[in-house]
Write a structure and sequence with these properties.
The chain has 18 helices and 35 strands. It has 630 residues and is an alpha+beta fold. It folds into 3 domains: 3-65 and 92-250, 3-Layer(aba) Sandwich (Phosphoenolpyruvate Carboxykinase, domain 1); 253-313 and 407-629, Phosphoenolpyruvate Carboxykinase, domain 3; 318-401, Phosphoenolpyruvate Carboxykinase, domain 2, CATH 2.170.8.10. Strands 1, 4, 5, 6, 7, 8, 9, 12 and 13 form a 9-stranded mixed β-sheet that branches. Strands 14, 15, 16, 17, 18, 19, 27, 28 and 31 form a 9-stranded mixed β-sheet that branches. The radius of gyration is 24 Å and the shape is globular. It binds sulfopyruvate and manganese (II) ion. The site of sulfopyruvate (SPV) has 9 residues, from α8 and α9.
Length: 630
């Protein structure tokens, strides 16, 4: 044990907190905490165990520090982020890599030495006058082959509180099994603060906002930001480290939901599903009548010949806009219960209740938001109207509060994944649901070729079509070609590999009208379930296997008895749009040939074959082909 580290801890921690830290027999933990006390110079240090009184202390600190304020419902609080800090900051999120490590041009990286120097300069004395919270968590269930222990240091009680809700506490696990374990480590400081609405404090020095990822040491630094996607260690920061670890060890860490589909627990079929941020992932994962294991990040391993999956997290950091009583019943019920929930970047009404876009048909004309007192027509410093709530307003809540939480949420063995779904914001190409011919065809045409229009979950322009393999591009920590090859190899030799599907909730007709109703996802999920269980046949098209009209009708009748699903609707939705598919293949081939490192040969072969099938079909039937033609 490093005596200097112990000496430093002894002089900076009070007796109680020192004993809590020293009970963990892992010098890497002691050295790390001591080092960042020395650099960040907090006024005090609180070591949080798994005990209720410690967790309560964190919760109360979030109020005391003016990072959260109570709402009218017991256990509900509001947190604001700076107006310009309400989404992930991709530009300032960088991998710190040695010169010799080429990760490819699509992934934001910089020289490791330079990045470490820069971020440590920012961190210097950054916690002056503040308390540092030291927290221990487990990614994946504890006592499981999936477990990854994590250590978080932060001066934000809001971050530490959110982590309590979203992750499995693991102080006891560190005490029991902490010796010599590889750990993921996170340092966060919100930096200097300024006042926002309700006297809450938000990060001020956004010019010095950084999220730097040191893959060599499994350590992440986050500064001058509060938005959870930039700060909560165990979420997207850890996903980046997990992808790198998974790549070396032959498993997968994915931006995926995990859900159980079926009417009884005995007949449950589990699906994983990758969607870019704000593209329907949480609303699919929480579908009433099905069960939820996770809504954002899944770890997948091959165990005894099956693909097993766990939720890396245990809570939801979900998007609020659009959630309403009829379309999102299970989320709505949880949001209106007295479950512990942190709302962020919503409008607080004069009844001290949260309000978000789409909650009901009318907006309140005034309230309080991050900008202080808000009224309809209020302008920001650029002269633009300030919306009452942000498009990326979110809620943070433990999954146990959902009425349809799956009983296997904490099962250390995970659930057997029988199907994998890929979805994006695609207005003009893919049909609402389609099955791949086989594992490799799915990995290439549905996952590696995925594109999606940008959303409010990241800073920058919205609605721009972007290449987003596996919906995971924002978090990839290995060259993209290597990542795709890992996917191919993961299940290519498995006789019982999961089926791969694509869904598209955002398809529009030529006049720009959406062709899906929001609730239709229930139908597509049930059709995929029937395919996995070999209960229905499918039509073979050049791009994959699509439903027969006659198989969809009874599913619609069962779930929406008041709606008649017409043949015309089916034709509009499932017409194969050959020019759009060919253009997409052209874009994808160009992208992989020009900009992607280590692209596996299979990718070019599979896409060329798909192109030929589409050209044949075009010669035979024309550009837009009704599903009844195949
Ligand atoms: C996402 O943007 O994909 C999210 C929210 O799930 S966060 O990553 O925390 O920004
Ligand atoms: Mn996400």
């Amino acid at each position: 044990m490093d005596q200097d580290a112990i000496g430093l801890l002894e002089s900076h921690l009070d007796d109680k907190n020192f004993k809590k830290l020293i009970a963990i027999d892992n010098p890497r933990v002691h050295d790390f905490v001591a080092n960042y006390i020395d650099i960040c110079r907090p006024a005090s240090v609180f070591v949080c165990t798994d005990e209720k009184k410690d967790i309560d202390y964190i919760r109360k600190s979030a109020w005391r520090n003016r990072e959260e304020a109570p709402l009218s419902m017991p256990n509900h609080t509001i947190h604001f982020d700076n107006y310009k800090d309400q989404a992930r900051d991709k530009d300032n999120t960088k991998f710190l890599l040695p010169e010799s490590y080429n990760i490819g041009p699509e992934i934001n990286a910089m020289n490791r030495e330079r990045g470490l120097k820069e971020v440590h300069k920012i961190l210097h004395r950054m916690m002056k006058g503040r308390e540092m919270y030291v927290r221990f968590f487990s990614l994946g269930p504890t006592n499981s082959p999936f477990t990854i222990p994590c250590l978080q240091l932060t001066d934000s009680a809001y971050v530490a509180h959110s982590e309590d809700i979203l992750y499995r506490q693991a102080y006891d696990e560190f005490v029991k099994n902490g010796k010599n374990r590889e750990i993921f480590r996170f340092v966060h400081s919100q930096g200097r603060l300024q006042e926002a609405g309700l006297d809450l404090m938000v990060s001020r020095d956004l010019k010095k906002r950084r999220v730097y990822i040191d893959l060599m040491e499994n350590t992440i630094f986050s500064t001058n930001t509060q938005y959870a996607g930039n700060t909560v260690g165990m979420k997207k920061l850890a996903l980046r480290l997990a992808i790198n670890k998974a790549s070396k060890e032959g498993w997968l860490a994915e931006h995926m939901l995990l859900m159980g589909v079926g009417d009884t627990q005995e007949k449950m079929t589990y699906f994983a599903g990758a969607f870019p941020s704000a593209c329907g992932k949480t609303s699919t994962a929480t579908l009433a009548g099905d069960t939820i294991v996770g809504d954002d990040i899944a770890l997948l391993r091959k165990i005894n010949g099956s693909i097993m999956g766990v939720n890396m997290e245990r809570g939801i950091f979900g998007i609020l806009p659009g959630i309403n009583a009829s379309d999102d019943k299970s989320q709505w019920n949880a949001l209106n219960s007295d479950a512990e929930i942190i709302f962020s970047n919503i409008l607080v009404t004069d009844k001290n209740e949260p309000y978000w876009d789409g909650k009901s048909d009318t907006w309140p004309s005034k309230g309080i938001n991050h900008s202080g007192d808000w009224f309809d027509g209020k302008l920001d410093d650029m002269g633009r109207k300030i919306p009452p709530a942000h498009k990326n307003a979110r809620f943070c809540m433990a999954l146990e509060n959902m009425e349809n939480v799956d009983p296997n949420l904490h099962n250390p063995d995970g659930v057997k994944v029988s199907g994998i779904i890929y979805g994006g914001r695609d207005s003009d190409t893919f049909v609402p649901v389609e099955e791949a011919f086989d594992w490799i065809h799915g990995v290439i045409t549905k996952a590696a070729a995925l594109e999606s229009e940008t959303t409010a979950a990241t800073l920058g322009k919205r609605g721009v079509r972007k290449f987003n393999p596996m919906s995971n591009i924002d978090f990839l920590s290995v060259p993209i070609g290597t990542y795709i090859k890992n996917h191919i190899d993961f299940a290519k030799d498995m006789p019982d590999a999961p089926r791969i599907f694509s869904v598209n909730y955002f398809l529009k007709d030529m006049s720009g009208k959406y062709l899906n109703h929001k609730s239709d996802k229930k139908i597509w999920v049930r059709w995929m379930d029937k395919r996995v269980n070999n209960e229905v046949k499918a039509i073979r098209t050049p791009t994959g296997l699509i439903p027969y009209y006659d198989d969809l009708v009874p599913i619609f009748e069962n779930f929406f008895p008041d709606i008649t699903y017409t043949e015309d609707e089916y034709i509009n939705q499932f017409t194969v749009r050959i020019p759009q598919h060919l253009a997409k293949i052209k874009r994808t081939l160009k992208m992989y040939a020009a900009r992607i490192l280590y692209t596996p040969e299979e990718l070019f072969d599979v896409l060329e074959d798909q192109k030929e099938r589409l050209e044949d079909a075009r010669d035979r039937y024309g550009n837009y082909v009704s599903p009844f033609k195949f």
